[in-house]
Specification:
With 214 residues, this protein is an alpha/beta fold. The chain has nine helices and eight strands. The protein binds adenosine monophosphate. The site of adenosine monophosphate (AMP) has 17 residues, from helix 2 and helix 3.
């Protein structure tokens, strides 16, 4: 089963995708993660993408579609969770092709519906353990012991370069202008489902499970 998690930055797509990976043996394909890895490696794609990502704008369709194609070739028959992809209508059309070429098909597109002001708070406060990646938040989830990761005991934490208010506002505007117009494409096919993304992680997870098991 291949699915898309759609929603603006900070809606909780990554958190929900990780849960589906653990509980259902699916594979998370996050173009944001792939691009950040390319930036860390200092590859030509990474160098090009870094400037665009720091501005909160969208990386070219050609680059992200190529990344998704390469990763789809590696996951064999496990179900894919597309996280942060597609973000434009051109990417949505390209995804149909990439899937068809591999004998795969989208089962569900789940849109996490959220309130934009809450997102700015969620994103600008988030940070994670530099060693194990455990997620934290300045207001909603600080480590139990100051400067010590609850999970691995690490003392180094990191924040994404693009999680500042100015960039977040651009990322939200990009979502409204370029990604929201994809919704009718999937609605017409009858595979689009909305989920209230403002609930707790557990509530959102239960709503997603209900759709996937329907
Ligand atoms: P994310 O981790 O999904 O919030 O993505 C972080 C940044 O990576 C975005 O603000 C874009 O600059 C870039 N990016 C990630 N996925 C895509 C995509 N599908 N299309 C274009 N740019 C993307």
């Amino acid at each position: 089963m291949d699915i898309i998690l759609l929603g603006p930055p900070g809606a909780g797509k990554g958190t929900q995708a990780e849960r589906l990976v653990t509980n259902r043996g699916m594979v998370q394909l996050s173009t944001g993660d792939m691009l950040r890895a390319a930036v860390r490696e200092g590859s030509p794609i990474g160098l090009q993408a870094k400037v665009v990502m720091d501005a909160g704008e969208l990386v070219s369709d050609a680059i992200v579609c190529a990344l998704i194609g390469e990763n789809l070739d590696r996951i064999e028959n496990r179900g894919a969770i597309f996280d942060g992809f597609p973000r434009t209508l051109a990417q949505a059309e390209a995804l149909d092709l990439l899937l068809a070429e591999r004998g795969r098909k989208l089962s569900y597109v789940i849109e996490l519906e959220v309130n934009e002001e809450a997102l700015v708070d969620r994103i600008t406060g988030r940070f994670s353990c530099a060693s194990c990646g455990a997620p934290y938040h300045d207001r909603f989830k600080l480590p139990k012991v100051d400067d010590t990761c609850d999970v691995c005991g690490g003392h180094d934490f990191k924040r994404r370069d693009d999680d500042n208010e100015l960039t977040v506002r651009t990322r939200l505007a990009e979502y409204r202008a370029k990604t929201q117009p994809i919704l009718p494409f999937y609605r017409e096919r009858g595979i689009l489902h909305g989920v209230d993304g403002m609930g707790s992680v557990g509530e959102v997870a239960a709503a997603i499970d209900a759709i996937l098991d329907s």
